[in-house]
């Protein structure tokens, strides 16, 4: 793989025009963001889910209800934990330093552990007592840097794979973490020619243990593709060209294909802006561009076909599967109307996003490779964070777990856990009460599971009324009955993005 050419082609990170010579910091803006958020937090305690954390965490949970005896293992979670340093606050939710978490279930007790991922960036800035490097949405830059891993926050996902644990961030390398202590081991290089290559935070692990992933840098117009065996060895690596490529966060795999959805963004060449600010929405107005669906053949790592959808933003996918013969591919994802990337700035200043459930829909998309036609089916409004059972990744599935914001809310608040029948669109749902914020929930199969509801729906919820967090466990066959158990710790855990359950 032409690693050096790939890294130089993108506008992200080392090509931001900041490497080697630090420019003036945007410290004034970062301080005013800090002031505005804390003034809003004093009025609205629900904003505590976006508050910064200092130090690590350890505690034993008090269980309300009963943890199923069969549910044993560790629920690994990751998300941004530190947003503030030296009186400054990041502008974007995606900027914070990674905080790895482990909820451990042994059949009798539930314990929680949280620890910052000690990346190069985290250690340098901790020692300096201030932010030094540019972040995705904040253009602070007080010190030059070597490569994209100098900026790696390792803040998006925590992946157990091949008896190891990796903290993931989409712009650079995976960071290996000790699964027992959550201590940082160091940067993972899958192969020498892949050092510092972007490795997305959304790899897909098939039932046989094969891992598929990709990497992309905004403005580079190229996507790196990886197939890694269950033993951790790289089996395939390649690059495809995707013109007008900006944001690419997630994808889906079927038996024969990799499916990417490219939202319509341009990338500005104004180096005075942060990388997030340089993403210019091109999905509105008379010259609006469509959202593109890029389908890649897994056997050759070449593009099979490109489809078009109405202009929408996308972060996350559920799953994909092919009909017999591979002529039709179906996949699930959440599509957002408008520039959802820009909307995620507001919460860092304490401004709530208005609730528009119809603008955030979980959808089933069907692609006919023979005719080039597409069909869509609306599954759930107000949705985000779709997941499926691990045994159906890349295969025909019938259930999709997702969160949603109840239509009665005036602000966008993910407060409802859903298990959606993707054939009928019916949802088995439970809504938490006022003051609760719900994180991504994952499906965990019972040993020898006979179906996609034979197991549990496991996640975390933040109770801003009491300043505490709880591991939540639902019977996947009866989500509407409410959680069978809440395991509450006496403190607030940082709000996480993604994670995975590793059975004992």
| pLDDT < 50 stretches | 14-25
How big a fraction of the residues is strand?
35-45%
Structural class: mainly beta
Total DSSP helices: 4
CA(first)-CA(last) distance: 37 Å
Biggest pleated-sheet summary: 6 strands, antiparallel
**C-alpha-based Rg, rounded:** 21 Å
Helix content: under 10%
Mean pLDDT: 93
Per DSSP E runs of 2 or more residues, the count of β-strands stands at 35
Quaternary state of this entry equals single chain
Shape: globular
Any key phrases for this structure?
single chain; 504 residues; six-stranded antiparallel beta sheet; 35 strands; 7% helix
Question: Could you describe the 3D structure shown?
Answer:
With 504 residues, this protein is mainly β. Helix content is 7%, strand content 40%. The chain has 4 helices and 35 strands. It has helices at 3-9, 27-43, 120-128, 340-343; strands at 57-60, 62-65, 73-82, 84-85, 88-89, 97-105, 110-116, 157-161, 164-168, 175-177, 184-187, 204-205, 211-216, 222-228, 234-241, 252-253, 257-262, 265-267, 279-281, 291-297, 302-309, 313-322, 328-336, 360-368, 374-381, 383-387, 399-404, 416-421, 427-431, 436-438, 442-445, 455-463, 468-475, 485-489, 498-503. The strands form 9 sheets. Strands 2, 30, 31, 32, 33 and 34 form a 6-stranded antiparallel β-sheet that branches. Strands 1-7-6-3-35 form a 5-stranded antiparallel β-sheet, with no helix packed on it. It is globular and about 55 Å long.
